[in-house]
């Protein structure tokens, strides 16, 4: 869970997740939304993958990135454990 929250703490990574919520994208398409280098985008994607928030799938020469919805369900479940039961 620590790597998840560390990954979510960065605004660039949060924006990447927002982009992936609508569709699966390759790194080059993600990079078009930022004023940072492609290696930096790759680094952010690596952190998101290591935190299990993003999945990758190689299709031909491209790697498509998508949200790992299971990981987000686990985060929400964890957060809901803090609400008070009545």
TrEMBL record:
The keyword Magnesium does not apply. The keyword Transmembrane does not apply. Keywords: DNA-binding, Transcription, Transcription regulation. GO terms for molecular function: DNA binding; DNA-binding transcription factor activity. Signal peptide: none annotated. This is Transcriptional repressor SdpR. SUPFAM superfamilies: Winged helix' DNA-binding domain. It comes from the Bacteria. SMART domains: HTH_ARSR. Residues 1-86 form the HTH arsR-type domain. It holds the Pfam family HTH_5. InterPro entries: ArsR-like_HTH (IPR011991), HTH_ArsR_DNA-bd_dom (IPR001845), HTH_MetalResp_TranReg (IPR051081), SdpR-like_repress (IPR047796), WH-like_DNA-bd_sf (IPR036388), WH_DNA-bd_sf (IPR036390).
């Amino acid at each position: 869970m620590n790597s998840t929250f560390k990954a979510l703490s960065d605004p660039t990574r949060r924006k990447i997740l927002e982009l992936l919520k609508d569709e699966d994208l390759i790194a080059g398409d993600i990079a078009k939304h930022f004023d940072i280098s492609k290696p930096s985008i790759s680094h952010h994607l690596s952190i998101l993958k290591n935190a299990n928030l993003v999945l990758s799938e190689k299709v031909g020469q491209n790697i498509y990135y998508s949200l790992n919805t299971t990981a987000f369900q686990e985060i929400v479940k964890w957060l809901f454990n803090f609400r008070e039961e009545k």
